[in-house]
Amino acid sequence: MSDELNPAVPDSATAEGPETESEEPIKQRKNGLYPGVSDELAENMKSGWADTELRDLKPVPQAAETARRRAALSARFPGERLVVPAGNLKTRSNDTEYPFRSSVEYAYLTGDQTEDGVLVLEPTGDGHQETIYLLPRSDRENGEFWLSGQGELWVGRRHSLTESEALYGIPAADVRELADKLREATGPVRVVRGYDAGIEAALTDKVTAERDEELRVFLSEARLVKDAFEIGELQKAVDSTVRGFEDVVKVLDRAEATSERYIEGTFFLRARVEGNDVGYGSICAAGPHACTLHWVRNDGPVRSGDLLLLDAGVETHTLYTADVTRTLPVNGTYSELQKKIYDAVYEAQEAGIAAVKPGAKYRDFHDAAQRVLTEKLVEWGLVEGPVERVLELGLQRRWTLHGTGHMLGMDVHDCAAARTETYVEGVLEPGMVLTVEPGLYFQADDLTVPEEYRGIGVRIEDDILVTEDGNRNLSAALPRRSDEVETWMASLKG
């Protein structure tokens, strides 16, 4: 990474930008090789640049949907100023940052994903005036574009405010002026917290935690039912994920020669080529690591005869993620015991998926899957029945561990701030998308099960769309039944 000119960004860069009214100078890197900039070089860098303004831009594909979402938000909070930040860059170490991912609330309402952006809805007589506040193009007059660590020469071109208006269908303004405007604001205000400390500080005497939480809950519940655009994006995410799983199966021999990291890297390549990123840390759990629910270290061995639990999802460029799990025999064939356990989980998943339909309680698919798994545990003599007693006391949870699914969307665990009565205690509606993912996990140190069970973990997970007359498995292209998995793996390896 080059560091010849790249200076440290002043602390106020996000709020005011370099050389604004405060005239704060652009700071040089402490140990940079150039101690300063001559007047002649500064003058030279101001001119001789082509006009790169993009004209005749088309709106982003989801522009109509984001407009409807903002209208619903406006209707819910009439007469109130609403502030929804995208968030800021986060430091990884010293002067390097993590890749930026916009807040879900902001991206959902605008379609934009750039750091420091803020959507503001100003109350009017009959609704709200919408403005998207963004960083404009880097200033060439004051040298920001080549001297600031976040200048365009260093991190790439960003859209002008005029371009952003065309893309997102929202009037755009300079975000560096927003904090002062918010400090002077009067009347009721709500802000989505946790993303932009500077914006929150400007509103500190105008907002309350309770009112802000109501805004966050509303935006979470608004995503419970997906529109046609969102369903299409989720299907894209799943389709890329299926190809990512195929990629992994083709290189299992190389993973055996290295580690779980080869699997992680293989899937990540597909995610970055076809999407924005992985939707969450890939779980590439071989052997007994499959019993650790969120095994993301991915540094263990991959051995023939063991199972590989791969839980991974591609995130699209619009930030919708898949969430799929398959438990695969590394050598392509399940052992007798592995198959028995796998088939039990498959049977439980079948029962869970069958329970997903409009009008059903959200809990129904979980209860259906847990019942099947409990019946198997009792049948195998691992827990004393009857089944109803085990379920009542939750004794099966020693081996089933987790809930059987969750809502899916722009977050892998989407709609997490929704009220319990509209989510876990709610009723399924067409357009909802959820995972169905039962599992059985026999820990390597679990002395309550026969030794041959220990270290075996199995989970099967698919992404299910609630339809008008039942459900559709968005990830049906990926085989699930044990014999179909073996045939599929053989065809890919062959």
Automatic annotation (TrEMBL):
<dbReference type="Pfam" id="PF00557">
    <property type="entry name" value="Peptidase_M24"/>
</dbReference>
<dbReference type="GO" id="GO:0070006">
    <property type="term" value="F:metalloaminopeptidase activity"/>
</dbReference>
<keyword id="KW-0464">Manganese</keyword>
<dbReference type="Pfam" id="PF05195">
    <property type="entry name" value="AMP_N"/>
</dbReference>
<dbReference type="InterPro" id="IPR029149">
    <property type="entry name" value="Creatin/AminoP/Spt16_N"/>
</dbReference>
<keyword id="KW-0378">Hydrolase</keyword>
<keyword id="KW-0479">Metal-binding</keyword>
<dbReference type="InterPro" id="IPR000994">
    <property type="entry name" value="Pept_M24"/>
</dbReference>
<comment type="similarity">
    <text>Belongs to the peptidase M24B family.</text>
</comment>
<dbReference type="InterPro" id="IPR052433">
    <property type="entry name" value="X-Pro_dipept-like"/>
</dbReference>
<keyword id="KW-0645">Protease</keyword>
<dbReference type="GO" id="GO:0005829">
    <property type="term" value="C:cytosol"/>
</dbReference>
<dbReference type="GO" id="GO:0006508">
    <property type="term" value="P:proteolysis"/>
</dbReference>
<feature type="domain" description="Aminopeptidase P N-terminal">
    <location>
        <begin position="60"/>
        <end position="200"/>
    </location>
</feature>
<dbReference type="GO" id="GO:0030145">
    <property type="term" value="F:manganese ion binding"/>
</dbReference>
<keyword id="KW-0031">Aminopeptidase</keyword>
<dbReference type="InterPro" id="IPR001131">
    <property type="entry name" value="Peptidase_M24B_aminopep-P_CS"/>
</dbReference>
<dbReference type="InterPro" id="IPR036005">
    <property type="entry name" value="Creatinase/aminopeptidase-like"/>
</dbReference>
<dbReference type="InterPro" id="IPR007865">
    <property type="entry name" value="Aminopep_P_N"/>
</dbReference>
<protein>
    <recommendedName>
        <fullName>Xaa-Pro aminopeptidase</fullName>
        <ecNumber>3.4.11.9</ecNumber>
    </recommendedName>
</protein>
<feature type="region of interest" description="Disordered">
    <location>
        <begin position="1"/>
        <end position="36"/>
    </location>
</feature>
